[in-house]
Amino acid sequence: MWTCKNLWKKLAPLARSSSTLCRQNARGVLFNNERRLPLVPQAHMSSGTPGSGGDNNLYYLLVGATCVGGGFYVKTSVQGSVSEPIAAESEESSEPIAAESEESSEPIAAESEESSEPIAAESEESSEPIAAESEESSEPIAAESEESSEPIAAESEESSEPIAAESEESSEPIAAESEESSEPIAAESEESSEPIAAESEESSEPIAAESEESSEPIAAESEVSLSAMEETAEPATVAPAEVPAPTPVEFPSHAPYLLIGGGTASFAAARSIRARDPGARVLIITDEPDLPYMRPPLSKELWFSDDPSVVDTLRFKQWNGKERSIYFQPPSFYVSPQDLEKVENGGVAVLTGKKVVHMDVRGNKVTLSDDTEISYDKCLIATGGIPRNLQVIERAGEEVTKRTTLFRKVEDFKALDKVSRDTKSITIIGGGFLGSELACALGRRSADSDLEVIQMFPEKGNMGKVLPEYLSNWTTAKVKSGSHCQPRLGVAVITEALVKAVSFKDGKVEIKLKDGRVVKTDHIVAAVGLEPSVELAKSAGLEVDSDFGGFRVNAELQARSNIWVAGDAACFYDIRLGRRRVEHHDHAVVSGRLAGENMTGANKPYWHQSMFWSDLGPDVGYEAIGIVDSSLPTVGVFAKATAKDTPKAATEKSGTGIRSESETEGTANSPVASSTPEPPPVPEQKDNYGKGVIFYLRDKVVVGIILWNVFNRMPVARKIIKDGEEHADLNEVAKLFNIHDD
């Protein structure tokens, strides 16, 4: 190494002959372009007068030897830190020298990289800086003559190239030699496999020697330059210390089967897909924090539980006394989303708390609320619906809004449970399935407290849009008396109630009706229907039905060639009853299952008639199928009820509290009565409607059936609707349900 230094001193006069021209060219480029010379690693170097090729070869050989020697020294002195020599030497050196910031307004300064220990010692003894900056020349890299009193420029860390001098013939700007150059220096640098920074460290030794012999102006400028370099060097030594760890992927970027929505329809579809394709990888995306669960117990069995921790466990006793959870499967059933692509035999993964906000049908991908994109091969939309609210409540202000519950999810059940324990009055607006079920459930709870439960609706009786008027009135009387809902207080039912305005006064919510009546309460539960969730229709370019709402699909539940819709959001074509949209649990099971089969190539039409049911406590319940609309003509056949004609007895016999899961699997082979052109008139009934069958007719054909306290006969009802025949005597048809058996 010291030999190389002596050789360099001998060759220094040869380099001085070109220094003047180098400086002039560099100054001209800087002043003309008003910017720093580009440190492009390309240069043609000359160590003598034009034409002295022998000198050039000798110079190249010496510089190459210097590079190899410097690289070997760095490799042996730095402890295994070949990949990051600058960082390693920065820790050992007490005064690291860093490159001056590119943003500096001063002329471009060339500086030496951090020197090794011998050079550092030499620098301390001489108290002279290793690198000097020239304010006048603005040369990136220059070899300075001792007689010229010009600053000596060392090579910049940013370029990390050996010292280069400009050729007098080419008048090119001084720059480091490129790796692509065919010059010997580049070749030697590549063969050494050492960082180029090591070469520049080694080559800085002769410069340091010349720096010690330079005049006082050089030292003065060097001290100023060194102080500036030390300021910029401080952050440079800290910068590479920390590298942020990559964010772990929480879900796959692609799912062969993508199910949007985490309700009953999605779970039924996933189970159906896995049954037909055991190795399928299914990803369910839901905006709820919960795994797929069944909704009916939220307004039924959970309210009749005696367990004080039911809000936390979400486990309940069915009417048959057996306990179960509202969740379809425990967490162990599912695969974690990040493992879905790696699991050997596939599985079902649920991505909770994520909402799909955009759907690219052509690109087969969806965008989540956090801008994450997930691609798919086949997709099911099962987004369900959003509870409707009354406009008068929405306009009433914040105080009324925060005292109003729109009942739909687990969190709504928990919130209403807390309200029922903390307040003294709850008013339920709505007389349909949900409103009547919650009225009975809360009415029962009021037996152990001073809770007042009020139910109001615009119809003349409970479930007035579904039941015939006489049966609706009978049901309303039972709710009022409390014989089935709450044995002591019952529920205060206000019929033909049209809400005109809602306000908050004196700590109470005040409800004004159009007929002038005023109801004051602490809390409102709005159970006025469901609006299908079709937010994705616009971005996906899917059709929404103008009459029934929901995504318009064909009989196979297809909206596009690889997109299906199931559950509450599907407006499907029923091959027997025409276009429909159904909002019930069993329909979600049946349509989800069918969609899953069709996603795996079944191509089956929707012919299965789903059922729905409602229980007004453990003693009164009904099951229905088809189109049940009180505006249609009806025929009812009733009989005296017995102790076994209750929802509790029915579930004890069937062994399940979710009746749709067992009833939809059965088939009926019983014969039906012969057809006739004219149905009989509606028979008169007594005041006691213990159990019976109500037929709904359209064009003299049965299109809907309600089984009132008659259970486990749904396959018979389904066959009657499927046949689509006219019947001479519906009393004979009613015998198929065994309503007269004790």
Automatic annotation (TrEMBL):
Family under the similarity heading: Belongs to the FAD-dependent oxidoreductase family.
Cofactor(s) annotated in UniProt: FAD
Record bears the keyword Disulfide bond: no
Domain of life: Eukaryota
Cytoplasm is among the record's keywords: yes
PANTHER family documented for this protein: APOPTOSIS-INDUCING FACTOR 1, APOPTOSIS-INDUCING FACTOR 1, MITOCHONDRIAL
Protein name (Swiss-Prot/TrEMBL): Apoptosis-inducing factor 1, mitochondrial
Listed Pfam families: AIF_C, Pyr_redox_2
GO biological process: apoptotic process; mitochondrial respiratory chain complex assembly; positive regulation of programmed cell death
Biased composition (Acidic residues): 89-215
Gene name linked to the record: AIFM1
